[in-house]
Design a protein that fits this description.
The protein is mainly α and 84 residues long. It has one domain.
Amino acid sequence: MGLPNQPVTLTPDQVAELNQKLADLRHNLNNHLAMISAAGEILQMRPDAVPRVLPSLLERPGQITGEVRRFSAEFEKALGITRD
């Protein structure tokens, strides 16, 4: 991982933008986790719902990974971090 050789300075607007992106990430991750928990509860009460619930449940890990990947890219860009 390539780190900057000099101090990194962010403007208040850049900090606010990065903070908003972090808040969005937390919100979206909480939503995904809530859906996973709800799906688990539904499946405990109604095992016959597996065909309806399972596809959505299986999509969540990829969606979570995508959210983290997008935030990481923005974070690294803002701080001048490169991938070697």
